[in-house]
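mind reviewing both lines:
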Amino acid sequence: MFNRKTVLSGAIVAAALSSFTIPAFAEVGVYIDLAPPAPRYEHFDARPGYVVAPGYWDYTNNQHQWVPGRYVAERKGYRYEGDRWVQHDNNKWTRQQGGWTREGDSPNR
């Protein structure tokens, strides 16, 4: 049998989860002065059922480090947008994390 505390706790959890969203493109939160190097060219063969998550420059230990691209399982009706660096008005750079976007939607970039 449910008691008031159980019902109230469930309602609070449901309300919290319903307001929780994961943005498709989130800034990683590192603001740096140094622009990333040009992306590296990587060759990937076509692989049915997969798309390529392209490589990108990460910033760790006060330097840019290349993170190689990889295959990710395809999601019908979506396209994969890779990580990218964005320059802000104050000449600072942040990395926006890549992710899936519905076909036809434009990401918040």
Confidence is low (pLDDT under 50) at residues 13-26. The first strand starts at residue 50 and ends at 53. The chain has one domain: 25-102. The longest helix spans residues 4-18.
